């Protein structure tokens, strides 16, 4: 059967968690370390107070808490490519005062140095289970934290989510937006409408009653002009004949009469022409080429 790997909290770590729960305080974790186990596989035990043989220690890069399991958290250690020349078989998590909080075994991992020509960064993550992860806090120097891609992506998502939530609750940012509960109401002659939660349609009400409109092909309409029957009542001899006076017109029987020196004229029933009378008698006019003119 192959080697199994695990993480256990130490007796001192469990005691610290119980004390924090009782006092309403927290357990501050600050560092992680790795070791080579003295060249042998390591069986982590809760009685341990340190690694078998520590090879590298650094500030914790990040601690994240499990949203589903309140008794679990993940701790992360970053080992830069400039550090190496050793193997890793064990890992430890330390409290602020240097006490070993949790210890674990790892598959044999080589961490080469720069001289090997294959040096690279190494990120180690361990999952730790405790009585209540809410008692765990991290005390680190932010200037020494390496921002991993996952961390940056997560922080970006959190910042974006926070910004969106802040925007959604900021009334001033929506002054030019209408509330979706506002209604488009149908006035007289219209039907339809509703709130702004969906598209709305307003329709003209057609009918024969007041407050409705008749359609262009309504049978009651007669080509959109004065009906013939109505016209006949107003003609001469009709039951309601319109006189020239009613509409401010002249009676066609009135005459244009020719006065002295003119001939022609007649009633207004047709075009009329008035003509100057030329001659040699009184009441006539001589023409411009009359021989009597000197």
Automatic annotation (TrEMBL):
It comes from the Bacteria. Residues 218-244 are annotated as: Disordered. Residues 1-150 form the Phage tail fibre protein N-terminal domain. Pfam families: Phage_tail_fib (PF12571). PANTHER family: PROPHAGE SIDE TAIL FIBER PROTEIN HOMOLOG STFQ-RELATED (PTHR35191:SF1). This is Phage tail protein. It comes from Candidatus Bilophila faecipullorum.
């Amino acid at each position: 059967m192959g080697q199994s790997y695990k993480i256990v909290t130490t007796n001192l770590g469990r005691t610290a968690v119980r004390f924090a729960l009782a006092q309403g305080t927290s357990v501050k974790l600050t560092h992680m370390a790795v070791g080579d186990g003295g060249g042998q596989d390591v069986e982590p035990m809760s009685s341990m107070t340190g690694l078998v043989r520590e090879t590298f220690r650094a500030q914790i890069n990040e601690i994240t808490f499990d949203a589903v399991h309140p008794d679990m958290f993940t701790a992360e250690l970053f080992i830069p490519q400039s550090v190496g020349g050793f193997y890793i078989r064990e890992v430890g998590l330390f409290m602020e005062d240097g006490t070993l909080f949790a210890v674990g075994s790892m598959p044999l991992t080589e961490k080469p140095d720069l001289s090997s020509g294959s040096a690279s960064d190494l990120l180690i993550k361990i999952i730790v289970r405790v009585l209540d992860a809410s008692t765990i806090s991290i005390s680190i120097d932010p200037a020494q934290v390496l921002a991993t891609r996952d961390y940056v992506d997560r922080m970006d998502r959190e910042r974006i989510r926070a910004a969106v939530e802040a925007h959604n609750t900021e009334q001033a940012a929506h002054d030019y937006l209408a509330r979706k509960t506002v209604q488009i109401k149908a006035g007289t002659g219209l039907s339809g409408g509703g709130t702004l939660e969906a598209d709305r349609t307003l329709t003209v009400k057609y009918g024969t009653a007041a407050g409705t409109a008749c359609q262009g092909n309504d049978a009651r309409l007669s080509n959109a002009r004065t009906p013939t029957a109505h016209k006949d009542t107003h003609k001469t001899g009709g039951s309601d004949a319109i006189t020239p006076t009613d509409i401010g017109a002249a009676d066609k029987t009135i005459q244009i009469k020719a006065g002295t020196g003119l001939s022609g004229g007649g009633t207004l029933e047709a075009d009329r022409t008035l003509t100057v009378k030329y001659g040699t008698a009184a009441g006539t006019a001589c023409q411009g080429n009359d021989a009597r003119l000197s």
